[in-house]
């Protein structure tokens, strides 16, 4: 039944299944929604993540009209939490002048953080005979591994550390080694990047999770519709190493976004602008606000943006 549904989703069911293809597709969907597959989710960074997500999208991405799919999102809620108290204790042992520098020193104290950070930095600065300055696919893979396997109390300090000068901000911006993983000679069209992302199970899932966890909700206490800072930041870091990798746009603001442009969007310019607005107008709070949010529920200033369902 799952094999049948996958053929339907691929759009070639009528060829492979014959004249009764539509009925077979509908029957397969109905049967599968009565099994434990209904509502199943995957774990971010799991060993067979792509295979798990392919099953998820087979159930949630049908090209057949009239099929009612269960509303859900790809990933299970993260069980790990950010132990900011422990991190503060570690950071207190090093110089407290530059929080971003302190975050690097704290990472070097932890064996896993230091090992995986060294791996991705090495992969992202090593010249490639075929790819020029670096091997971007290898760099992106190493970055995903780092942000998936290292506890967020380290990764968040590295990526969201507060800065008061440009030197600190540049260190923060360089966290993802943008010369390899982020920037390019020319900015591609954002919608073209999004199409490439949606064609990959992992990237599509990370984008969907980001939309769900980081959907702004101004009436809510904290600015996030889901009212979960940690989940939003995890979803944000989940995009790093993908086609739509986000990063800081400059060293003078906290504005973030993917490396792309809407210049050649034609009659889809508004849709392209809405995609960029999900990053540009959805301000991630500084780590100081994030760490204190559970204690004093500090409000986050979030602008009203287009409903994320337009990008599904």
TrEMBL record:
Primary localisation category: membrane
Biological process annotations from GO: cell surface receptor protein tyrosine kinase signaling pathway; nervous system development
UniProt keyword annotation of Lipoprotein present: yes
Domain GDNF/GAS1 as annotated: residue spans: 1-64, 100-180, 190-284
Any single Pfam family the record assigns to this protein: GDNF
Gene Ontology molecular function: signaling receptor activity
Keywords: Cell membrane, Glycoprotein, GPI-anchor, Lipoprotein, Membrane, Receptor, Signal
GO cellular component terms, semicolon-separated: external side of plasma membrane; receptor complex
Topology class, membrane: Lipid-anchor; GPI-anchor
UniProt-annotated location(s): Cell membrane
Family: Belongs to the GDNFR family.
PANTHER family given in the database record: GDNF FAMILY RECEPTOR ALPHA-4 PRECURSOR (PTHR10269:SF16), GDNF RECEPTOR ALPHA (PTHR10269)
Protein name: GDNF family receptor alpha 4a
């Amino acid at each position: 039944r799952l094999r049948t549904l996958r053929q339907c989703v691929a759009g070639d069911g009528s060829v492979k299944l014959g004249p009764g293809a539509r009925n077979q597709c509908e029957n397969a969907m109905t049967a599968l929604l009565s099994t434990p597959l209904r509502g199943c989710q995957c774990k971010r960074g799991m060993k067979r993540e792509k295979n798990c997500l392919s099953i998820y999208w087979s159930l949630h991405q049908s090209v057949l009209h009239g099929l009612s799919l269960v509303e859900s999102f790809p990933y299970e809620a993260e069980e790990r939490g950010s132990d900011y108290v422990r991190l503060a204790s570690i950071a207190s042992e090093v110089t407290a002048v530059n929080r971003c520098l302190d975050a690097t020193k704290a990472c070097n104290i932890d064996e896993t953080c230091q090992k995986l950070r060294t791996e991705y930095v090495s992969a992202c600065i090593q010249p490639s005979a075929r790819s020029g300055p670096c091997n971007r696919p290898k760099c992106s893979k190493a970055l995903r591994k780092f942000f998936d396997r290292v506890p967020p109390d380290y990764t968040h300090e590295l990526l969201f550390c507060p800065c008061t000068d440009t030197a600190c901000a540049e260190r923060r911006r360089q966290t993802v080694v943008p010369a390899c993983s982020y920037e390019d000679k020319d900015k591609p069209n954002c919608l073209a990047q999004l199409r490439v992302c949606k064609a990959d199970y992992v990237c599509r899932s990370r984008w969907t999770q980001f939309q769900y966890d980081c959907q702004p909700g101004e009436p809510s206490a904290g600015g996030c519709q889901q009212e979960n800072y940690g989940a939003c930041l995890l979803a944000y870091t989940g995009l790093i190493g993908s086609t739509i990798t986000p990063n800081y746009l400059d060293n003078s603001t906290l504005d973030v976004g993917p490396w792309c442009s809407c210049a050649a969007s034609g009659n889809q310019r508004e849709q392209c602008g809405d995609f960029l607005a999900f990053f540009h107008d959805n301000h991630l709070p500084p780590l100081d606000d994030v760490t204190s949010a559970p204690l004093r529920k500090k409000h986050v200033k979030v602008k009203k943006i287009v409903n994320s369902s337009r990008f599904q």
